[in-house]
Design goal:
With about 475 residues, the protein is of the alpha/beta class. It has 20 helices and 5 strands. It folds into 3 domains: about 130 residues, Rossmann fold, CATH 3.40.50.620; about 120 residues, Serine Threonine Protein Phosphatase 5, Tetratricopeptide repeat (Alpha Horseshoe), CATH 1.25.40; about 170 residues, DNA Cyclobutane Dipyrimidine Photolyase, subunit A, domain 3. The structure holds flavin-adenine dinucleotide.
Amino acid sequence: MSERVNLVWFRSDLRTADNPALLAASREAGATVAVFLVAEKQWQSHFWSAAKRNLQARQLRDLAARLDKLGIPLLIREAPRFRASPRVLLGLTGKMPVVSLWFNREYGLDERQRDRAVEHQFADAGIAVHTRDDQCILRPGTVRTQSDEMYKVFTPFKRKWMEQLETSGWQPLPSPEPQARPELDADTELPEVETDTSAPGQDWAAGEDAAQQRLQDFANERLQRYHQWRDRPDVAGTSGLSPYLALGILSARQCLAAVLDDEQGAPVAAGEGAMTWRNELIWREFYRHLLWHHPELCKGEAFKPDLDSVTWRDDDQAFAAWCEGRTGFPLVDAAMRQLVSTGWMHNRLRMVTAVFLTKHLMIDWRRGEQFFMEHLIDGDFASNNGGWQWSASTGADAAPYFRIFNPILQSRKFDPDGVFIRRHVPELESLERPTIHMPDPDTAARLNYPEPMVDAKVAARKAKTAFAEARGRYAEASA
Ligand SMILES: Cc1cc2nc3c(=O)[nH]c(=O)nc-3n(C[C@H](O)[C@H](O)[C@H](O)COP(=O)(O)OP(=O)(O)OC[C@H]3O[C@@H](n4cnc5c(N)ncnc54)[C@H](O)[C@@H]3O)c2cc1C
């Protein structure tokens, strides 16, 4: 066993290529050993879905095999809650000569508290801790307004982000060089994490190769027309890479490198498609930067304080109908059933269903946010919270204060032939357009499909009033 061990702690960066902490540790003198902590109770309290847990467990096998080829053992340890992490990690230092700990930063509130505790306890033990930024292409905190603040809306953030990209040296990093595998005591390696094979999301194969393959296929086959097809749930127009990005099986830098042809960030020949896709990656960055600046978002606070006191309806039956895809609005129902059965939902439909819950049903966005986390394979706090607050009009959004979609018009526009609805709502399989977007009461009854649970226009008017009242109350209270 080497005299010096550099310990790399894997979290949401489950890959060997373009992993800043892993690469830096591997370049230090001594042996590299990797560790992953299973934080089952903590993940439950963060509402991680079975689908996400399952992909993570499958990915850990791929990671262990890849690290093994590099001569780096992966230890898997249990630390049911984050507060156990310092103790479990320090426990390893008693079994091998650890001289340093390396990890890539995470930006959630609990994650930051956990990491501070680890840093303090390692400092007390005289062991160096080194951190790196990995999750974003540009480090949170570095894209700021002229008055040195975080942007509150996307477009100026994007402009500044693009400007800074040019000089940032953002390119993906190589994998570490293979090393001589250190000999560990027999009791240091635990069996693999259990996997639940009944979880949805088995379509996403684990492994860095599978993620890279999907990225290449997307770049070669669909990127060019991304801007035309990205809003159509009936067509495979988007990349489907979000589960890989959420767990760090793929990095945002690797994604950007696949669509840009030089370090200055000029799009490849694919042109508008590539530029539009790059913008989506910037949305992802925007929400992570917001979280870094506003960790209180993790406590369920609305980003816009004037809309934190909207009077939400406490209606469990209506919430259950939304969750189960029984609202009587075919596109909303198809989307919710897609979520529950596959663990994934198309972006346009995430917006439609979130607006429907918060505006048409007037149910608190936090309930929807949690339900999404409980089912999404790509569940990611920053993007999910950002998307929910954007849809509920309480978030970082340039729109004045009220955003609403008519679910029937959205259906006609984005699933014109009803292909997507037919795929997920078998009761409506026999219907053609235009009926499939909103069957008349007789047809719905005959097909055993529910009646619309609200009148969309009346509900929209009521919601507008409720939001205006909340603003009024806030203005009065702060006068
Ligand atoms: C209410 C709501 C909840 C959401 N919850 C999540 C979530 O938990 N996890 C998650 O990864 N995304 C979330 N999103 C964002 C978006 O819907 C998904 O990232 C996207 O649908 C993933 O599909 P894709 O990989 O095919 O995306 P593509 O269109 O191929 O985009 C490429 C990548 O860019 C990022 N991206 C795309 N759109 C957005 C966006 N609007 N905001 C932030 N990042 C984006 C994703 O990482 C995505 O994989 C949410 C959006 C809304 C409106």
